[in-house]
Write a structure and sequence with these properties.
This protein has three helices and six strands. It is an alpha+beta fold. The protein has a six-stranded mixed beta sheet with strand order 2-1-6-5-4-3, with helices on one face.
Length: 143
């Protein structure tokens, strides 16, 4: 791995961690700044698309709707494997995470796999496409 590849990996790790923190804090406008203007966000459950948006206005509407559907959100990112394509200024990434959502005293634990496409735009990395796979869901009353 070259120095430039290592630097891009660190930047992309920070990007997905910023995404998680801003999402938990419901800072939607700042979260949108981490995506390409033409970015796509798609959520699947058992291979069925349950939410999808492309472009900033549609993304903002979807993220606002998701934020309003929860009282509290807590995201813990896990392994993040990045593959760089320096020739095209793109990268792909796989990220695993645990997301806890509280609504009306019910805690839902999600085990999530993110399949990401990143683009190097205007001297910075951005999320071009994020596919969210809800692999495991466990809901129970909050103790």
């Amino acid at each position: 791995m070259t120095y430039g590849e290592a630097e891009s990996n660190l930047i992309l790790d920070r990007l997905v961690n910023q995404w998680a923190v801003l999402g938990d804090e419901r800072k939607i406008d700042q979260q949108l700044d981490l995506m390409a203007a033409s970015g796509t966000y798609r959520v699947t459950r058992q291979d069925t698309v349950v939410a999808e948006a492309t472009g900033r206005p549609a993304l903002k509407a979807l993220f606002t709707q998701q934020a309003q559907a929860a009282d509290t959100v807590f995201t813990l990112n896990g392994p993040h494997l990045i593959t760089l394509n320096a020739d095209e200024n793109t990268a792909s990434g796989v990220l695993y995470a645990q997301v806890k959502v509280v609504k009306d005293q019910v805690l839902t634990d999600y085990s999530v796999r993110y399949d990401d496409q990143y683009a190097f735009i205007d001297h910075n990395w951005a999320i071009q496409e994020r596919q969210v796979h809800l692999l495991i869901e466990d809901a129970h009353p909050l103790a």
